[in-house]
Amino acid sequence: MTSPIEIEDSATKVAAEGEAKPKEAEASLEGRSPGQLMWMRFKRDRTGVICAWIVLAYFVIGLAAPLLTMLSGTDPYTLYGQDPDYAATPVLDEFGLPLGSFGGVSAEHWFGVEPQLGRDLFAMMVYGIRTSLFMAVGVTILTIGTGVVIGLVGGFVGGKTDYYIGRVTDFLLAFPSQLFFIAFMPVVTAFFVDPREETPTYFRALAILIVLWVLGWMGMSRLVRSTVLALREREFVEAAKVSGASNWRILFKEILPNVVSPILVQFTYTLPSVILTIAFLSFAGVGFVEPTPDWGRLFANGADYTEQAPAFIFFPGIALVIFVLCFNLLGDSVRDAFDPKSGR
To answer: Of 64, 77, 84, which Cα lies nearest the Cα of 114?
Structure first.
């Protein structure tokens, strides 16, 4: 039979162990930087980690597109349904529809072929991923970088500088960017390119980059400005001013590190949005055009064959949905990892 003294000792031991665990947890977090704490929280989020690996796989596929098409033995430009060199192995029937099941999937054409022309869908898709991702990364970096700089200046300097920056931002926000681009692209093409000549792909890419950049930085600027307005009144900023620190040091050493969290989160939301915008522009015929492989062009071509060959749009559609979904989930995980109050 257990004595009251033994019961009291065991209860004391359990209480001591319970108090020791929080102390050990606090001790394990001591000396860690905010970035290390964020990484610890992020690694515990299985959904975020899985989505990060999937997103990374898309970038690897885009970089390795030439190698992947070399392994498949195809390319995105050859018309396998019309080229006489491939007449011995036809891929289209007399109506121009893919032979075989599910859009002509075979050992030679892993995702099938395009109706009427017979181009390999796998090669078109991996090169389309390459085009869309590289363009989206360039646009996102420019828009985020511009928005951060303008937001920092407007929020920290204030006064007339902030007022005029705000009015320019309001003016640009009044432009419907996608509709403006649809109207803007033919004008630019006619101004810089002879109407008798085909518009070079690099020129279209540059036009997409510039227009989406000019009309895309305002949201980031507003977010950074609001954050800086709250931070510039904090005690650590006042202490830096009293110590004689210059405005540049206060801006880049004291304020900017505290704005990294919303910047990274906004980056993860902006990039998939830019990809969808580029796809829409190509779908509307003012972005990339044939024969440049692009996600938007695949959807535009697939819309013409939806009734006869619905399988043609299956693989590009699934790939785009998975990428956008994973990137958005990754953005949620990054936001929760930066939030110390999050229980995830």
So the answer is: 77
- What type of residue is 271? L
**Closest by alpha carbon to 325, among 279, 277, 276, 272?**
272
Question: For 41-75, how does the pLDDT look when each residue is reduced to its tens digit (9 = 90+)?
Answer: 888 888 989 999 999 999 999 999 999 999 988 88
Q: Tell me the β-bridge partners of 92.
A: 98
Helix (H, G, I), strand (E, B) or coil at 18: helix
pLDDT, tens digit (0-9, with 9 covering 90-100), for 161-217: 889 999 999 888 887 777 777 777 777 777 777 767 777 888 888 888 888 888 889
CA distances from 119 to 92, 108, 302, 319 (A): 10, 12, 13, 18
Residue 78 contacts residue 96 (beta carbons within 8 Å)? no
Q: What is the DSSP string of 227-250?
A: HHHHHTTSHHHHHHHHTT--HHHI
Non-local (6+) Cβ contacts of 26 within 8 A are: none
Nearest CA to 48 out of 59, 38, 33, 63 is that of 38
Structure tokens at 119: 């181009």
